[in-house]
Amino acid sequence: MPFENTLQCGDSNQIIGAMPEGAVDLVVTDPPYGVNYRDRTGRTVKNDDTLESVLPVFDQLYRALKPGGFCISFYGWNRIDRFMAAWKAAGFTVAGHMVWTKDYASRRRYLAYHHEQAYVLVKGQAKLPGKPLADVQPWVYSGNKAHPTEKAVEVLSPLIRSFSRRGDLVCDPFAGSGATLVAAALAGRRYLGVELEEGYCRQARTRLEGVVRYKEEREVVVA
């Protein structure tokens, strides 16, 4: 099974579990939050009704991640107790927390939600960056056209550039429509994505094919 510059359609626990130990340099992911999410058009996220098959993936990610490697995981605030327990049980140490501020409310209930958030986790000890990324970042709206909870490539690119180097392997075990993989490819990183839904796998592969063509055209122009 190839683990480099590929998107695997299937179960993350099985696919990440088959990876060699210490093969991954960076994880950037937005897992299902276990909240039965449904967007305004009625689209849902597979396996978002429970965290039973989601949280064990972090055990596999910890094993597959290199010592000193980072795992950046978005999360749902109303399930943070479950996520934090799973991260720590897997072996991760919390290294930081990030917030992206929105100029619109993505949801309104008791509060109007104007931000997204992620924890920065690390396996063991990591080197300090020369120029740390600010923990509050501006949000870029993706339009959610390809996936109901799609993150914009512009949001993910600074994470990949700050927490990995060119040629590193970036992994997203909940790849959705492939935004993390696109951001990794554009930044000169290798990538591995896993996605359970075949429809999103097809969309992600189409996007990645476009990135390959774009990079090939740029090389021709530069040459």
Automatic annotation (TrEMBL):
Reactions catalysed: a 2'-deoxyadenosine in DNA + S-adenosyl-L-methionine = an N(6)-methyl-2'-deoxyadenosine in DNA + S-adenosyl-L-homocysteine + H(+)
EC number(s) on file: 2.1.1.-
The DNA methylase N-4/N-6 domain, residue ranges: 24-204
Source lineage: Bacteria, Pseudomonadati, Pseudomonadota, Alphaproteobacteria, Rhodobacterales
Protein's recorded name: Methyltransferase
Stored Pfam families: N6_N4_Mtase
Gene Ontology biological process terms in this record: methylation
Single GO MF annotation: site-specific DNA-methyltransferase (adenine-specific) activity
Gene Ontology CC terms: cytoplasm
Keywords of this entry: Methyltransferase, Transferase
Keyword Cytoplasm: no
The keyword Ribosomal protein belongs to this UniProt entry's keyword annotation: no
Family: Belongs to the N(4)/N(6)-methyltransferase family.
Highest rank taxon of the organism: Bacteria
Organism: Pontivivens ytuae
